[in-house]
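Handout, page 2. Input:
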Amino acid sequence: MKYNPDQHHRRSIRLKGYDYAQSGAYFITLCTWQRQSVFGEIANNQIQLNTYGEIIQFHWDSLPKHYHYLKLDEFIIMPNHVHGILVLTDNPACKKRHGLPEIIRGFKTFSARRINKNRCLSGVPVWQRGYYEHIIRQEKSLMAIREYIIKNPLSWEEDELYRDRAPAWDGQIKNLALQMNRIL
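Output:
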């Protein structure tokens, strides 16, 4: 389908004028395509990763090898989404520096390729097109978000992203933002 700006427009949730390549901590949420439970299941309040979930873990853990100024913080894989904290640091040895959108794009692209190769499929979406991000500016917020990530499996059936309960993608983003604002 040919691009038509009157039909194909998306409102950015990014903070206008903010440099997403600058040092700082970022909370991100990525959802699977149509909220399909692809990465495993919750049993006894813990995620039981399947092969695809293990692929996600591998690619997440590999991010600092590709982006030397990146540090990983708390992270959880859920059946149909992931939550994580990425910390962009000041590393003078890194001359070329990609911002958060490029890091997320790379993660989603390489993990989806590997999952589809494993499924013997090509071009099938694994991830939703967008993602949720929140700039973490205070230690108090960082601690609250870490706790939220760690406890995510405990409230899986009440989670906004639970497949049988979740609203459409736009609603997911709005609800997640409201939920995070309550935490912060």
